[in-house]
Amino acid sequence: MEPLWRVDFHCHTDASRDSLVNPEALIARARQRGIDRLVITDHNRIDNALRVQVLAPDRVVVGEEIKTTRGELLAVFVREWVPPNLPPDEALARLREQGAFISVSHPFDLQRYGWQLPDLLAIAPLVDAIEVFNARCLDARMNLDAAEFARQHNLAGTVGSDAHTLGEIGQAALLVEPFSSPEELRQVIGRGQVQGRLSSPLVHLASTYARWRKQFRKG
């Protein structure tokens, strides 16, 4: 039996408005932290993830964190960009058309585009997973509620550092059997094992600084 992979399903590069992470440094840190697969999920774009995958095709998976009119989705194996601010059903239809694996970003973190329960219930039959551990959640109960929702609705769980800085890479990961496609991921993710701890609340200051610095440059 092949060794399990450590997979971080949620991280950002400097293509995201609130991150300054250099892609080459990101790959190096993932190797240092023993992350076998890193899903780059920049906010509402995939261009940088596509470029980074060329640099490390054996480690990087193209993803996207998509802001809908109700909350955020976390997609893996994205081939075509899905624009922000679509109704959830339209965003989900575009992802399903391209065969992407679909999770839901930090669903109970309402300060970061989480989901109201009726909206989450409406999309539950249309997604593959729920993000059951996000290292940037300020309250551990948010992840516990997400894991319980996934259990109740027979959904798999993704795990991510939600890293916006290099120091956060690998803060959370899922131990899972190797996969090379969304279909294979769907087959193995239900047996995944959560590894993770919450990041310091101070990491959010780094995101604030990144937004300020990019705005200053524009000015």
Automatic annotation (TrEMBL):
<dbReference type="InterPro" id="IPR003141">
    <property type="entry name" value="Pol/His_phosphatase_N"/>
</dbReference>
<dbReference type="InterPro" id="IPR004013">
    <property type="entry name" value="PHP_dom"/>
</dbReference>
<dbReference type="Pfam" id="PF13263">
    <property type="entry name" value="PHP_C"/>
</dbReference>
<dbReference type="InterPro" id="IPR016195">
    <property type="entry name" value="Pol/histidinol_Pase-like"/>
</dbReference>
<dbReference type="GO" id="GO:0004534">
    <property type="term" value="F:5'-3' RNA exonuclease activity"/>
</dbReference>
<feature type="domain" description="Polymerase/histidinol phosphatase N-terminal">
    <location>
        <begin position="7"/>
        <end position="70"/>
    </location>
</feature>
<dbReference type="GO" id="GO:0035312">
    <property type="term" value="F:5'-3' DNA exonuclease activity"/>
</dbReference>
<protein>
    <submittedName>
        <fullName>Predicted metal-dependent phosphoesterase</fullName>
    </submittedName>
</protein>
<dbReference type="Pfam" id="PF02811">
    <property type="entry name" value="PHP"/>
</dbReference>
<dbReference type="InterPro" id="IPR052018">
    <property type="entry name" value="PHP_domain"/>
</dbReference>
